[in-house]
User: What shape does this take?
Amino acid sequence: MASISLRNACLDYPLYGAYDFSLKRRVLGRLIREQDEMRTIRAVDDVSIEAAAGARIGLAGPNGSGKSTLLRLIAGVYPASSGQVEISGSVMPLLGLNAGVNLDFVAEDNIALLLRISGRKPTRAIIDDIWAFTELEERMQRLPLRMFSSGMLMRVLFATATAFPADILLLDEWLSVVDENFSAKAETRLLKMVSQAAIVIIASHDQPLLRRTCNRIINLDHGRIASTALVEQPVIHPFEFREKRA
Ligand SMILES: Nc1ncnc2c1ncn2[C@@H]1O[C@H](COP(=O)(O)OP(=O)(O)OP(=O)(O)O)[C@@H](O)[C@H]1O
Assistant: This one.
């Protein structure tokens, strides 16, 4: 049974240079009277969330309020700095272009890697199926992802991430660079995944979108839960994520 339980979860990011213990840094640090202590920023602050099957949760809040970080915490990308995070069920995070890929590896190796991370065996047939969905040229499978445009990279990541259903689906605003043709196809595939997932969490600045698609909206502010609103009857369809296009 899919479930999410966060109890008083906090996540601190180390600030730039916090792990730089070089001589140059130490000397410069003394000159500018830098403190020796670890400098961090608390991006998720004392957050408690319980979610069971059927939960459709929207994360709202201003820039920097911690929406993406909270999704990464739930996805297991980062461990909690304190508090408890307990997740049951398979998690599919659709978080962004830099999540979990190595740009120096060729496309098919990245696909294989992503499949392994999500517990699937990357067979030739599965990789070919995923590639067919991208509609990219066959030869590009053997090129490093560094050579892909952001739209092409998005196609590869999306096709891989949505190849199998998941119990828990985490969506950050991220489909903005996919072109019109692919977007319609992506929407159909994503809608199917959303309807199959037991728990869906969507981070968005689009309040009407969240009210249409979610039954609970959590407003974050400076990493803390500022308020939680229950939505009476969300209209799950249409899931208009294309509104987020740049
Ligand atoms: N890799 C990082 N290293 C250090 N600080 C970070 C990092 N990523 C985010 N932050 C900081 O953590 C806080 C929360 O950022 P986060 O990206 O989670 O907010 P957000 O609500 O998703 O913002 P937006 O709406 O702009 O996408 C911000 O203060 C941000 O500057």
